[in-house]
Each structure stands twice: as C-alpha cells, then as structure tokens.
Design a protein that fits this description.
The protein is of the alpha/beta class. The protein contains 14 helices and eleven strands. Helix 4 links the parallel strand 5 and strand 6. The radius of gyration is 20 Å and the shape is globular. Bound molecules: NADP nicotinamide-adenine-dinucleotide phosphate. The site of NADP nicotinamide-adenine-dinucleotide phosphate (NAP) has 29 residues, from helix 1, helix 5 and helix 8.
C-alpha cells in the first residue's frame, strides 16, 4: 500500500495555496498537510489549520492585533523551520522574493521543492540549483507552462530539445491601442481573460513581464540555453507550452486552464491522479491560434530575456525592480506604462557579480529596490 505524501505549503493563504489545499483535501489517501505558512493572513491560515489535522503553522508578519491559530508561530525563522521539517514535498507559493529564504531552507534540508514561485528561480536560479544539487534533491514546476514542458520532457534527453515554446494568453491588453496604455487602471490590469490568480502575477501577465520571468525560470529548471526558449501568444490558453525536438517531433501539453492539474502532478512528483480537473474536449473547440509577440506592445519580454542572457545579478535586479514598480502601480504611485521603463533602467545599471552567494543576491535585491524606489519618487524621471 502506498503511504501518504507529507506536504508543506508555503503561501497557504494565496490563490495557489488555496487550490493546493483543495487538491490535498480531495485526495486524503494520497496527501497529508503537515505544515502551512502564510504571509500576514492569520485568519486565512486558521481556516487551513481547521480543515486539516493539525499541521504546524507559521505567519511570517502577522498584524499586531491578529489572533494566531493555536500553536501557530510567527516570523521568517519559524517559516524556514517549517520549510525544513520532515516532509515529502515542499510546495512554494509565496509571491516574490519573500519565498527565497524558506525555499533555500527546504532545499538545504533535502526536501523536494515544487515551486509555483518563479521569482525565486529568477533572482537566484544558480544558487537554488547549487543548493539542490549539494543536498541531492530537485526543484519541480507548478507554473502551468513549466509543468507542460516538464511533462513533454519526461523520458526525453534534454540534449535533443531544439526549442521550448512557452505560450502566453496575451493578457487583457492584447488588442488595446498602445496609445492608451498610460491611462490603464489597476482594475483593468487585474482583469485577466483566462486565469484567476493573485494580483502580482496577474499584473505581470498584463505587462507580459511574467513571460519574461518564465523564460528565465525555464532556463534554470530545464538547463536549456536562452537561445532555445521562445514565446508564442496563444489566447485560448489551452496549449500550456510545447517542445520541439531535433528530429522534428513536437510535444505539447493541453488542458483546461485549471491550476489544480499541475499542482496535483507536482505534489505527487509526477503521479497522475484521477479527475483532478475538467478534461479538455478538442472536438468543437475554437481553432488553436499562435502568434509572435508584438515587441512594441510587450517590451517586457525582451527586457527580461536580455537580463537572463546577461546573467549574474541582472535577473535578480529585474525581479526586485519589477516587484517595486508593480506594487507602486497597484497603489496608484506610478502609471502602467512606467513599470517596464523603471525595470529596464534598473537592469541596465545592475551591479556586477554572480548569484553564487546569498549575501550578494540579497544585496542586489536591496540595491534594485532602492533604485526603483528613487525612480518612483516625486519629480523623478522615468525614461
Ligand atoms: N495563481 C496562479 O494561478 C499562479 C500560476 C502560476 C504561478 N503562480 C505563482 O505562484 C506564486 C503565488 O501566486 P498567487 O497567485 O497564489 O499569489 P497570491 O494569491 O497573492 O498569494 C500569495 C501568497 O504568498 C504569501 N505571501 C505574500 N508575501 C509574503 C511574505 N512577505 N512572506 C510570506 N508569505 C507571503 C501570501 O500570504 P498572506 O495572504 O497570508 O499575506 C499568500 O499566501 C507567485 O510567484 C506566482 O507568480 C501563480
């Protein structure tokens, strides 16, 4: 008889976290939630703790007046302790750079990491890979595009890959006149046509920096050079990505846009479980269309690709500057069409160095946050 896989969930209160909870609850004979971490939402974490049989819990930065669930710890060290606890899979779904330290704690403890959080691989892909290798463990994807590639590559030799093509829906501004981008509101940018996700990734999907982050994520996950990673606009979001091989064969993974499918696959380390989500019916479906990315409309993809190719600390700067600019846009402190110029300006001046040391990564992250913040200051010019 198979034993249940013990799951730790970092970011249990978010969009991916809640869907992961649904998957765990749906397959109680396969999964057991043993640890859960939230950012601020103590009440949301209490709901998770009540739903499952007593996972260890921590809230990283609870509000001063928050009531924590019984036995719940607080602070980043407590979150890292839970990330390193005895478990079969640590699911990383904390948005942004905040996920880095808990992810490294999980890897250092030798845990299999299933990550939705692309930002960790962007800011510190070399470090993450080195820590995984020295602990003898792996990082596997949850992001739907990377899960698709992972599925296409099962049993294949990566050396036989001619190119990986990451698909992108194009987001809400695929057809909006570019001349009106300066007046885009947060509400408009958060209205994604196909996926329901947290605000940061939804906004990144609108600018398409998300796809740029995913190019870098794919480079580090699959060890494929940037020259072999491409992007195609595919508004239906049915083909989650595809891989072309040397012999001319193309493998694609298709499915309804439903994150529970890649989440379940990752929690099971590749095991397919029954009826996780709706099955896609291709008969009668709309034609599958694919287009090149319009680089004038979506300059973010090129900015991110250049940062990835530059390597060193550039991807870390890209990520941090973007986090600052996106938060500023969502708070009404900058215009939509200022986000990518701020990010690009920071990347152009990125400090030299590599991602081998955590201190260097954190210093570059802090440098980029400060520089992007200066660009947001009243009176600052955004190129
Ligand atoms: N949603 C999707 O469909 C989707 C698809 C592919 C990839 N992803 C990736 O998955 C990650 C999570 O996305 P999401 O959509 O689930 O975001 P979300 O709904 O905004 O949830 C974010 C989670 O991260 C936690 N968090 C935020 N800041 C934190 C901090 N400083 N320390 C600790 N925890 C913190 C939040 O905790 P509190 O709520 O308690 O503050 C919440 O649990 C992102 O990297 C995103 O790019 C998401």
């Amino acid at each position: 008889m198979r034993t249940r896989r013990r799951i730790v969930l970092l970011g249990a209160t978010g969009s991916i976290g809640r869907q992961a909870c649904d998957v765990i609850a749906r397959f109680p004979d396969r999964f057991e939630l043993v640890g859960a971490v939230a950012g601020r939402d103590a009440a949301g974490l209490a709901v998770v703790a009540d739903r499952f049989a007593g996972p260890r819990t921590a809230v990283v930065a609870p509000d001063a007046n928050a009531t924590l669930p019984p036995g719940c710890a607080s602070g980043i060290e407590a979150a890292c302790d839970i990330a390193a606890m005895d478990a079969d899979v640590v699911c990383v779904a904390i948005t942004g750079a905040a996920a880095l330290r808990p992810t490294l704690a999980a890897l250092d403890a030798g845990r299999l990491v299933a990550t939705a959080t692309k930002e960790v691989l962007v800011m510190a892909g070399e470090l993450v890979r080195a820590r995984a290798a020295s602990a003898g463990t792996r990082v596997i994807p949850i992001d739907s595009e990377h899960s698709a590639v992972w599925q296409c590559l099962r049993g294949e030799d990566v050396a036989s890959v001619r190119r990986i093509v990451l698909t992108a829906s194009g987001g809400p501004f695929l057809h909006r006149p570019i001349g009106t981008f300066s007046s885009i509101t947060a509400e408009e940018a958060l209205a994604h046509p196909t996926w329901r996700m947290g605000p940061k990734v939804t906004l990144d999907s609108a600018t398409m920096l998300n796809k740029g982050l995913e190019i870098i994520e794919a480079h580090f996950l699959f060890d494929v050079p940037y020259s072999r990673i491409e992007v195609a606009i595919h508004p239906a979001s049915v083909v989650h990505s595809y891989v072309e091989f040397q012999d001319g064969a193309v493998m694609a993974q298709l499915g309804e846009p439903d994150m529970r499918i890649p989440i379940a696959l990752a929690l099971g380390d590749g095991e397919r479980l029954p009826e996780v989500g709706r099955t896609l019916e291709l008969r009668g479906a709309a034609p599958l269309e694919f287009f090149d990315v319009d680089t004038q409309r979506f300059p973010a993809v090129g900015v991110a690709r250049a940062a990835g190719e530059a390597g060193g600390l550039s991807p870390c700067v890209l990520n941090a500057a973007n986090e600052v600019a996106v938060a500023a846009f969502l708070d009404g402190r900058c215009r939509y069409d200022e986000i990518i110029p701020i990010v690009s300006e920071c990347v152009e001046h990125a400090p030299s160095g590599d991602q081998a040391s955590l201190d260097d990564v954190l210093a570059a992250d802090a440098w980029a946050r400060e520089r992007a913040g200066e660009r947001l200051a009243p009176g600052a010019t955004v190129a």
